[in-house]
Protein backbone atom coordinates (compact mmCIF):
# COMPACT_ATOMS: atom_id res chain seq x y z
CA UNK A 1 0.00 0.00 0.00
CA UNK A 2 1.25 3.48 -0.87
CA UNK A 3 2.19 5.63 2.13
CA UNK A 4 0.01 8.71 2.66
CA UNK A 5 3.06 11.00 2.37
CA UNK A 6 4.32 9.44 -0.89
CA UNK A 7 3.40 11.39 -4.03
CA UNK A 8 1.74 9.51 -6.92
CA UNK A 9 4.54 10.70 -9.21
CA UNK A 10 7.23 8.94 -7.16
CA UNK A 11 5.18 5.77 -6.93
CA UNK A 12 4.58 5.77 -10.67
CA UNK A 13 8.26 6.29 -11.44
CA UNK A 14 9.19 3.40 -9.17
CA UNK A 15 6.63 1.18 -10.90
CA UNK A 16 7.83 2.23 -14.35
CA UNK A 17 11.49 1.78 -13.43
CA UNK A 18 11.38 -2.00 -13.29
CA UNK A 19 9.10 -3.35 -16.05
CA UNK A 20 9.36 -7.11 -16.09
CA UNK A 21 12.00 -7.28 -13.35
CA UNK A 22 10.96 -8.17 -9.82
CA UNK A 23 12.61 -6.33 -6.95
CA UNK A 24 14.06 -9.50 -5.49
CA UNK A 25 15.71 -10.25 -8.82
CA UNK A 26 17.37 -6.83 -8.84
CA UNK A 27 18.57 -7.37 -5.28
CA UNK A 28 20.11 -10.70 -6.30
CA UNK A 29 21.76 -9.10 -9.34
CA UNK A 30 23.26 -6.27 -7.29
CA UNK A 31 24.83 -8.84 -4.96
CA UNK A 32 26.78 -10.39 -7.84
CA UNK A 33 27.38 -7.43 -10.16
CA UNK A 34 30.30 -5.06 -9.54
CA UNK A 35 29.25 -2.40 -12.04
CA UNK A 36 26.41 0.11 -12.18
CA UNK A 37 22.75 -0.71 -12.75
CA UNK A 38 20.78 2.09 -14.39
CA UNK A 39 16.98 1.94 -14.30
CA UNK A 40 14.37 4.11 -16.02
CA UNK A 41 13.74 7.24 -13.98
CA UNK A 42 17.22 7.25 -12.49
CA UNK A 43 19.62 10.13 -12.95
CA UNK A 44 21.64 9.51 -16.08
CA UNK A 45 19.22 6.99 -17.61
CA UNK A 46 18.51 9.14 -20.66
CA UNK A 47 22.21 9.52 -21.44
CA UNK A 48 22.93 5.87 -20.66
CA UNK A 49 20.28 4.57 -23.04
CA UNK A 50 21.48 6.69 -25.97
CA UNK A 51 23.45 5.07 -28.78
CA UNK A 52 25.58 6.52 -31.56
CA UNK A 53 22.84 6.46 -34.20
CA UNK A 54 20.31 9.19 -33.40
CA UNK A 55 17.63 7.37 -35.42
CA UNK A 56 17.55 4.67 -32.73
CA UNK A 57 15.44 5.63 -29.70
CA UNK A 58 14.77 2.68 -27.39
CA UNK A 59 14.04 2.42 -23.69
CA UNK A 60 15.60 -0.58 -21.96
CA UNK A 61 14.20 -1.94 -18.71
CA UNK A 62 17.73 -2.05 -17.32
CA UNK A 63 21.20 -0.94 -18.36
CA UNK A 64 23.97 -2.95 -16.71
CA UNK A 65 27.31 -1.20 -16.99
CA UNK A 66 29.98 -3.84 -16.46
CA UNK A 67 32.98 -2.86 -14.36
CA UNK A 68 34.85 -6.13 -14.88
CA UNK A 69 34.83 -9.04 -17.28
CA UNK A 70 33.28 -11.22 -14.58
CA UNK A 71 30.14 -9.06 -14.71
CA UNK A 72 29.36 -10.31 -18.21
CA UNK A 73 28.43 -13.88 -17.27
CA UNK A 74 26.34 -12.54 -14.38
CA UNK A 75 24.20 -10.44 -16.72
CA UNK A 76 23.94 -13.14 -19.40
CA UNK A 77 22.54 -15.58 -16.83
CA UNK A 78 20.31 -12.91 -15.30
CA UNK A 79 18.69 -11.98 -18.60
CA UNK A 80 17.72 -15.57 -19.20
CA UNK A 81 16.45 -16.02 -15.66
CA UNK A 82 14.08 -13.05 -15.92
CA UNK A 83 13.28 -13.91 -19.56
CA UNK A 84 14.08 -10.51 -21.04
CA UNK A 85 15.88 -9.85 -24.35
CA UNK A 86 19.57 -9.03 -24.02
CA UNK A 87 21.42 -6.42 -26.08
CA UNK A 88 25.21 -6.24 -25.89
CA UNK A 89 26.90 -2.88 -26.38
CA UNK A 90 30.64 -2.50 -26.88
CA UNK A 91 31.98 0.83 -28.09
CA UNK A 92 28.47 1.76 -29.21
CA UNK A 93 29.20 2.85 -32.80
CA UNK A 94 26.89 0.35 -34.49
CA UNK A 95 24.77 1.92 -37.25
CA UNK A 96 21.93 -0.58 -36.82
CA UNK A 97 21.57 0.25 -33.13
CA UNK A 98 21.95 -3.35 -32.03
CA UNK A 99 23.36 -2.25 -28.67
CA UNK A 100 19.98 -1.39 -27.21
CA UNK A 101 16.45 -2.79 -26.87
CA UNK A 102 13.01 -1.71 -25.74
CA UNK A 103 11.95 -3.23 -22.40
CA UNK A 104 14.96 -5.52 -22.24
CA UNK A 105 18.44 -5.53 -20.75
CA UNK A 106 21.46 -3.71 -22.14
CA UNK A 107 24.84 -5.11 -21.16
CA UNK A 108 27.12 -2.09 -21.59
CA UNK A 109 30.81 -3.00 -21.90
CA UNK A 110 31.95 0.58 -22.50
CA UNK A 111 33.96 0.84 -19.27
CA UNK A 112 36.14 -2.15 -20.19
CA UNK A 113 38.77 -0.30 -22.22
CA UNK A 114 42.10 -1.75 -21.09
CA UNK A 115 44.71 -2.33 -23.79
CA UNK A 116 48.00 -4.09 -23.10
CA UNK A 117 50.85 -4.42 -25.59
CA UNK A 118 53.60 -7.04 -25.63
CA UNK A 119 56.26 -5.38 -27.80
CA UNK A 120 58.34 -8.57 -27.98
CA UNK A 121 55.63 -10.76 -29.53
CA UNK A 122 53.86 -7.72 -31.03
CA UNK A 123 50.57 -8.96 -29.60
CA UNK A 124 47.89 -6.72 -28.16
CA UNK A 125 45.18 -7.70 -25.69
CA UNK A 126 42.11 -5.49 -25.96
CA UNK A 127 39.14 -5.40 -23.58
CA UNK A 128 35.60 -5.55 -24.94
CA UNK A 129 34.69 -1.86 -24.67
CA UNK A 130 37.87 -0.35 -26.10
CA UNK A 131 37.70 2.12 -28.95
CA UNK A 132 40.01 2.25 -31.93
CA UNK A 133 41.76 5.29 -30.47
CA UNK A 134 42.55 3.32 -27.30
CA UNK A 135 44.38 0.69 -29.31
CA UNK A 136 46.15 3.18 -31.59
CA UNK A 137 47.41 5.23 -28.66
CA UNK A 138 48.70 2.12 -26.92
CA UNK A 139 50.46 0.58 -29.93
CA UNK A 140 51.91 3.66 -31.66
CA UNK A 141 54.76 4.23 -29.14
CA UNK A 142 56.08 0.76 -30.03
CA UNK A 143 55.90 1.32 -33.80
CA UNK A 144 52.97 -1.08 -34.02
CA UNK A 145 49.38 -0.95 -35.27
CA UNK A 146 46.44 -3.31 -35.29
CA UNK A 147 44.55 -3.08 -38.61
CA UNK A 148 41.25 -1.53 -37.57
CA UNK A 149 38.67 0.83 -39.10
CA UNK A 150 38.65 4.47 -40.21
CA UNK A 151 36.90 6.31 -37.34
CA UNK A 152 38.74 6.40 -34.03
CA UNK A 153 35.54 6.45 -31.92
CA UNK A 154 34.46 3.04 -33.28
CA UNK A 155 34.33 0.16 -30.83
CA UNK A 156 36.91 -2.54 -31.42
CA UNK A 157 34.51 -5.34 -30.44
CA UNK A 158 31.78 -4.76 -32.99
CA UNK A 159 34.25 -3.81 -35.71
CA UNK A 160 36.19 -7.04 -35.21
CA UNK A 161 33.23 -9.39 -35.01
CA UNK A 162 31.91 -8.05 -38.31
CA UNK A 163 35.25 -8.17 -40.13
CA UNK A 164 37.09 -4.86 -39.92
CA UNK A 165 37.72 -2.88 -43.12
CA UNK A 166 40.13 0.03 -42.74
CA UNK A 167 43.21 1.92 -43.85
CA UNK A 168 45.54 -1.11 -43.58
CA UNK A 169 43.33 -3.68 -45.33
CA UNK A 170 45.48 -4.14 -48.43
CA UNK A 171 48.69 -4.18 -46.43
CA UNK A 172 47.64 -6.51 -43.62
CA UNK A 173 44.10 -7.73 -44.23
CA UNK A 174 40.95 -7.29 -42.20
CA UNK A 175 40.93 -6.89 -38.44
CA UNK A 176 39.76 -10.51 -38.15
CA UNK A 177 42.73 -11.65 -40.22
CA UNK A 178 44.93 -10.36 -37.39
CA UNK A 179 42.96 -11.89 -34.53
CA UNK A 180 44.92 -14.47 -32.54
CA UNK A 181 42.42 -15.48 -29.88
CA UNK A 182 39.35 -14.34 -27.97
CA UNK A 183 37.88 -14.82 -24.51
CA UNK A 184 34.13 -15.46 -24.84
CA UNK A 185 31.19 -15.76 -22.45
CA UNK A 186 28.70 -18.19 -23.96
CA UNK A 187 24.93 -18.21 -23.61
CA UNK A 188 25.33 -20.75 -20.82
CA UNK A 189 27.39 -18.21 -18.90
CA UNK A 190 30.61 -20.17 -19.36
CA UNK A 191 33.95 -18.54 -20.18
CA UNK A 192 35.78 -20.20 -23.07
CA UNK A 193 38.88 -19.40 -25.08
CA UNK A 194 38.82 -19.53 -28.83
CA UNK A 195 41.70 -19.65 -31.30
CA UNK A 196 42.92 -21.72 -34.23
CA UNK A 197 43.75 -24.49 -31.72
CA UNK A 198 41.04 -24.10 -29.09
CA UNK A 199 37.36 -24.13 -30.06
CA UNK A 200 38.43 -23.58 -33.69
CA UNK A 201 34.90 -23.60 -35.14
CA UNK A 202 33.85 -20.89 -32.72
CA UNK A 203 36.98 -18.94 -33.62
CA UNK A 204 36.10 -19.26 -37.29
CA UNK A 205 32.56 -18.02 -36.66
CA UNK A 206 33.44 -14.89 -34.68
CA UNK A 207 35.72 -13.64 -37.45
CA UNK A 208 32.92 -12.06 -39.44
CA UNK A 209 29.78 -13.69 -38.04
CA UNK A 210 29.04 -10.84 -35.65
CA UNK A 211 27.98 -11.11 -32.01
CA UNK A 212 25.85 -14.20 -32.54
CA UNK A 213 27.89 -16.71 -30.59
CA UNK A 214 28.65 -15.10 -27.25
CA UNK A 215 30.06 -11.99 -25.62
CA UNK A 216 33.75 -11.48 -26.34
CA UNK A 217 35.33 -9.97 -23.24
CA UNK A 218 38.89 -9.78 -24.59
CA UNK A 219 40.57 -9.93 -28.00
CA UNK A 220 44.22 -10.72 -28.66
CA UNK A 221 45.60 -9.37 -31.93
CA UNK A 222 48.83 -9.76 -33.85
CA UNK A 223 49.97 -6.19 -34.38
CA UNK A 224 51.89 -5.11 -37.45
CA UNK A 225 54.95 -2.90 -37.77
CA UNK A 226 54.13 0.66 -38.78
CA UNK A 227 56.56 3.57 -39.04
CA UNK A 228 56.13 6.50 -36.62
CA UNK A 229 54.98 8.62 -39.55
CA UNK A 230 52.74 7.27 -42.30
CA UNK A 231 52.52 8.81 -45.75
CA UNK A 232 48.84 9.66 -46.14
CA UNK A 233 46.48 12.23 -47.49
CA UNK A 234 43.66 13.22 -49.83
CA UNK A 235 43.53 14.06 -53.51
CA UNK A 236 40.41 16.19 -54.06
CA UNK A 237 38.56 16.73 -57.34
CA UNK A 238 35.78 19.11 -58.37
CA UNK A 239 33.02 17.81 -60.67
CA UNK A 240 34.65 18.69 -64.02
CA UNK A 241 37.53 16.33 -63.17
CA UNK A 242 35.48 13.38 -61.93
CA UNK A 243 35.37 11.26 -65.06
CA UNK A 244 39.10 11.61 -65.72
CA UNK A 245 39.92 10.88 -62.06
CA UNK A 246 37.68 7.83 -61.90
CA UNK A 247 39.01 6.32 -65.10
CA UNK A 248 42.57 6.93 -63.92
CA UNK A 249 41.77 5.39 -60.53
CA UNK A 250 40.29 2.30 -62.14
CA UNK A 251 43.50 1.66 -64.08
CA UNK A 252 45.85 2.74 -61.28
CA UNK A 253 44.32 0.37 -58.72
CA UNK A 254 45.02 -2.63 -60.94
CA UNK A 255 48.76 -2.47 -60.37
CA UNK A 256 49.76 -0.84 -57.10
CA UNK A 257 51.72 -2.34 -54.17
CA UNK A 258 49.95 -3.89 -51.20
CA UNK A 259 51.33 -1.14 -48.97
CA UNK A 260 48.91 1.35 -50.52
CA UNK A 261 45.29 1.27 -49.31
CA UNK A 262 42.89 3.85 -50.71
CA UNK A 263 39.26 4.83 -50.22
CA UNK A 264 37.42 6.86 -52.84
CA UNK A 265 34.69 9.14 -51.43
CA UNK A 266 31.93 11.33 -52.87
CA UNK A 267 30.53 13.94 -50.46
CA UNK A 268 30.04 17.59 -49.66
CA UNK A 269 33.05 18.23 -47.40
CA UNK A 270 32.57 19.55 -43.85
CA UNK A 271 32.96 23.31 -43.34
CA UNK A 272 36.28 22.75 -41.57
CA UNK A 273 37.82 21.62 -44.88
CA UNK A 274 37.19 25.09 -46.33
CA UNK A 275 36.28 23.71 -49.77
CA UNK A 276 32.86 25.26 -50.20
CA UNK A 277 29.52 23.47 -50.40
CA UNK A 278 29.81 21.68 -53.74
CA UNK A 279 30.20 17.89 -53.84
CA UNK A 280 33.74 16.62 -54.20
CA UNK A 281 35.47 13.39 -55.14
CA UNK A 282 38.16 12.56 -52.57
CA UNK A 283 40.78 9.84 -52.97
CA UNK A 284 42.17 9.17 -49.52
CA UNK A 285 45.15 6.87 -49.04
CA UNK A 286 47.68 5.45 -46.60
CA UNK A 287 51.07 4.07 -47.49
CA UNK A 288 51.98 1.44 -44.87
CA UNK A 289 55.55 0.85 -46.06
CA UNK A 290 58.65 2.22 -44.35
CA UNK A 291 60.02 3.73 -47.56
CA UNK A 292 58.00 6.93 -47.90
CA UNK A 293 59.75 7.77 -51.14
CA UNK A 294 58.32 4.62 -52.70
CA UNK A 295 54.85 5.66 -51.57
CA UNK A 296 55.33 9.12 -53.07
CA UNK A 297 56.15 7.53 -56.42
CA UNK A 298 52.95 5.48 -56.35
CA UNK A 299 50.83 8.56 -55.64
CA UNK A 300 52.72 10.56 -58.25
CA UNK A 301 51.74 7.99 -60.88
CA UNK A 302 48.07 8.76 -60.19
CA UNK A 303 48.57 12.49 -59.86
CA UNK A 304 50.29 12.59 -63.24
CA UNK A 305 47.25 11.28 -65.12
CA UNK A 306 44.61 12.83 -62.84
CA UNK A 307 45.91 16.07 -61.33
CA UNK A 308 43.76 16.99 -58.31
CA UNK A 309 42.25 20.41 -57.80
CA UNK A 310 43.41 20.33 -54.18
CA UNK A 311 45.59 17.94 -52.26
CA UNK A 312 46.61 17.51 -48.64
CA UNK A 313 49.38 14.94 -48.63
CA UNK A 314 52.16 14.55 -46.06
CA UNK A 315 53.78 12.17 -43.60
CA UNK A 316 51.86 12.26 -40.32
CA UNK A 317 51.41 10.26 -37.10
CA UNK A 318 49.15 7.25 -37.50
CA UNK A 319 46.86 8.42 -34.69
CA UNK A 320 46.33 11.73 -36.50
CA UNK A 321 45.27 10.03 -39.73
CA UNK A 322 43.05 7.51 -37.93
CA UNK A 323 40.99 10.33 -36.42
CA UNK A 324 40.94 12.58 -39.50
CA UNK A 325 37.29 11.89 -40.41
CA UNK A 326 35.86 11.56 -36.91
CA UNK A 327 33.89 14.77 -37.31
CA UNK A 328 31.81 13.20 -40.09
CA UNK A 329 30.34 10.65 -37.69
CA UNK A 330 29.56 12.38 -34.36
CA UNK A 331 27.60 10.61 -31.66
CA UNK A 332 23.91 11.34 -32.04
CA UNK A 333 23.99 11.81 -35.81
CA UNK A 334 21.05 10.21 -37.57
CA UNK A 335 22.48 7.42 -39.69
CA UNK A 336 21.38 4.93 -42.32
CA UNK A 337 23.77 2.81 -44.42
CA UNK A 338 23.80 0.26 -47.22
CA UNK A 339 26.67 -1.61 -48.89
CA UNK A 340 27.69 -3.99 -51.64
CA UNK A 341 30.77 -5.38 -53.37
CA UNK A 342 31.55 -4.86 -57.06
CA UNK A 343 34.43 -5.61 -59.39
CA UNK A 344 34.60 -3.10 -62.23
CA UNK A 345 34.46 0.65 -62.70
CA UNK A 346 33.29 0.58 -66.28
CA UNK A 347 31.38 3.40 -67.95
CA UNK A 348 28.01 2.16 -66.68
CA UNK A 349 29.23 2.20 -63.07
CA UNK A 350 30.89 5.58 -63.52
CA UNK A 351 27.64 7.07 -64.78
CA UNK A 352 25.83 5.96 -61.63
CA UNK A 353 28.58 7.17 -59.32
CA UNK A 354 28.91 10.57 -60.97
CA UNK A 355 25.16 11.14 -61.22
CA UNK A 356 24.51 10.24 -57.61
CA UNK A 357 27.59 12.08 -56.40
CA UNK A 358 26.47 15.27 -58.13
CA UNK A 359 23.00 15.00 -56.55
CA UNK A 360 24.48 15.57 -53.11
CA UNK A 361 24.02 19.32 -52.74
CA UNK A 362 23.80 18.97 -48.98
CA UNK A 363 26.16 18.00 -46.19
CA UNK A 364 24.83 14.82 -44.67
CA UNK A 365 25.38 11.83 -46.96
CA UNK A 366 28.33 10.31 -48.71
CA UNK A 367 29.59 7.10 -50.21
CA UNK A 368 32.93 5.36 -49.94
CA UNK A 369 34.51 2.86 -52.29
CA UNK A 370 37.14 0.72 -50.57
CA UNK A 371 39.79 -0.65 -52.92
CA UNK A 372 40.56 -4.24 -51.90
CA UNK A 373 42.94 -6.95 -53.08
CA UNK A 374 46.40 -7.23 -51.58
CA UNK A 375 46.55 -9.08 -48.26
CA UNK A 376 42.74 -9.02 -48.03
CA UNK A 377 42.41 -10.97 -51.27
CA UNK A 378 45.06 -13.56 -50.41
CA UNK A 379 43.07 -14.93 -47.47
CA UNK A 380 41.27 -18.09 -48.55
CA UNK A 381 37.52 -17.63 -48.99
CA UNK A 382 36.73 -20.42 -46.53
CA UNK A 383 39.13 -19.14 -43.86
CA UNK A 384 36.62 -16.70 -42.34
CA UNK A 385 32.89 -15.99 -42.70
CA UNK A 386 33.66 -12.60 -44.24
CA UNK A 387 32.20 -12.75 -47.76
CA UNK A 388 33.75 -12.36 -51.18
CA UNK A 389 37.53 -12.20 -50.84
CA UNK A 390 37.70 -11.84 -54.62
CA UNK A 391 35.86 -8.50 -54.54
CA UNK A 392 37.85 -5.65 -56.01
CA UNK A 393 35.80 -2.82 -54.50
CA UNK A 394 33.38 -2.44 -51.61
CA UNK A 395 30.79 0.35 -51.64
CA UNK A 396 29.42 1.87 -48.44
CA UNK A 397 26.59 4.39 -48.86
CA UNK A 398 25.93 6.34 -45.68
CA UNK A 399 23.87 9.14 -44.21
CA UNK A 400 24.97 11.23 -41.23
CA UNK A 401 22.52 14.10 -40.75
CA UNK A 402 21.36 15.93 -37.58
CA UNK A 403 17.77 16.96 -38.40
CA UNK A 404 14.84 14.53 -38.21
CA UNK A 405 13.11 16.54 -40.93
CA UNK A 406 15.71 15.20 -43.37
CA UNK A 407 15.14 11.53 -42.53
CA UNK A 408 13.03 10.63 -45.56
CA UNK A 409 15.22 12.40 -48.12
CA UNK A 410 18.53 11.11 -46.78
CA UNK A 411 17.32 7.53 -46.43
CA UNK A 412 15.87 7.70 -49.94
CA UNK A 413 19.24 8.82 -51.31
CA UNK A 414 21.07 5.94 -49.63
CA UNK A 415 18.51 3.40 -50.84
CA UNK A 416 18.42 4.87 -54.33
CA UNK A 417 22.15 4.70 -54.90
CA UNK A 418 22.34 1.17 -53.49
CA UNK A 419 19.50 0.12 -55.79
CA UNK A 420 21.25 1.67 -58.78
CA UNK A 421 24.41 -0.27 -57.97
CA UNK A 422 22.65 -3.59 -57.38
CA UNK A 423 22.99 -4.40 -61.07
CA UNK A 424 26.78 -4.46 -60.63
CA UNK A 425 26.91 -6.23 -57.25
CA UNK A 426 29.37 -9.11 -56.94
CA UNK A 427 27.76 -10.73 -53.89
CA UNK A 428 28.04 -10.46 -50.12
CA UNK A 429 27.09 -7.97 -47.44
CA UNK A 430 29.46 -6.47 -44.89
CA UNK A 431 27.34 -6.64 -41.74
CA UNK A 432 29.09 -3.68 -40.09
CA UNK A 433 27.75 -1.50 -42.91
CA UNK A 434 24.14 -2.75 -42.66
CA UNK A 435 21.69 -0.34 -41.05
CA UNK A 436 18.45 -1.15 -39.27
CA UNK A 437 15.80 -2.57 -41.60
CA UNK A 438 12.52 -3.04 -39.73
CA UNK A 439 10.79 -6.28 -40.63
CA UNK A 440 13.76 -7.79 -42.46
CA UNK A 441 13.90 -11.58 -42.37
CA UNK A 442 17.16 -12.29 -40.50
CA UNK A 443 17.74 -15.53 -42.33
CA UNK A 444 17.37 -13.82 -45.69
CA UNK A 445 19.85 -11.12 -44.68
CA UNK A 446 22.30 -13.72 -43.38
CA UNK A 447 22.01 -15.70 -46.61
CA UNK A 448 22.67 -12.56 -48.64
CA UNK A 449 25.61 -11.63 -46.44
CA UNK A 450 27.42 -14.95 -46.23
CA UNK A 451 26.07 -17.22 -48.96
CA UNK A 452 24.52 -20.66 -48.37
CA UNK A 453 27.66 -22.66 -47.53
CA UNK A 454 29.07 -20.26 -44.96
CA UNK A 455 25.64 -19.68 -43.48
CA UNK A 456 25.15 -23.41 -43.01
CA UNK A 457 28.42 -23.60 -41.09
CA UNK A 458 27.60 -20.50 -39.04
CA UNK A 459 24.24 -21.97 -38.06
CA UNK A 460 25.94 -25.15 -36.87
CA UNK A 461 28.21 -23.11 -34.59
CA UNK A 462 25.24 -21.04 -33.43
CA UNK A 463 23.32 -24.20 -32.59
CA UNK A 464 26.23 -25.51 -30.52
CA UNK A 465 26.94 -22.36 -28.52
CA UNK A 466 23.59 -20.53 -28.50
CA UNK A 467 20.79 -22.97 -29.37
CA UNK A 468 18.09 -20.74 -27.81
CA UNK A 469 19.26 -17.65 -29.72
CA UNK A 470 19.95 -15.62 -26.58
CA UNK A 471 22.25 -13.40 -28.65
CA UNK A 472 19.69 -12.43 -31.26
CA UNK A 473 19.80 -8.64 -31.10
CA UNK A 474 22.28 -8.34 -33.95
CA UNK A 475 22.30 -9.18 -37.63
CA UNK A 476 21.06 -12.51 -36.51
CA UNK A 477 22.09 -15.98 -37.56
CA UNK A 478 19.30 -18.28 -36.34
CA UNK A 479 20.33 -21.68 -34.97
CA UNK A 480 19.73 -24.57 -37.32
TrEMBL record:
UniProt xrefs under SUPFAM superfamilies: FAD-binding/transporter-associated domain-like (SSF56176)
Record keywords, A-Z: FAD, Flavoprotein, Oxidoreductase
Entry keyword annotation includes Flavoprotein: yes
A GO MF label: oxidoreductase activity
CC cofactor: FAD
Leader sequence segment: none
Domain FAD-binding PCMH-type per the UniProt entry, residue ranges: 56-226
Domain of life of the organism encoding this protein: Bacteria
InterPro entries: BBE, FAD-bd_PCMH, FAD-bd_PCMH-like_sf, FAD-bd_PCMH_sub1, FAD-bd_PCMH_sub2, FAD-linked_Oxidoreductase, Oxid_FAD_bind_N, Oxy_OxRdtase_FAD_BS
Family statement drawn from the similarity comment of this UniProt entry: Belongs to the oxygen-dependent FAD-linked oxidoreductase family.
Protein name per the record: FAD/FMN-containing dehydrogenase
Organism: Glaciihabitans tibetensis
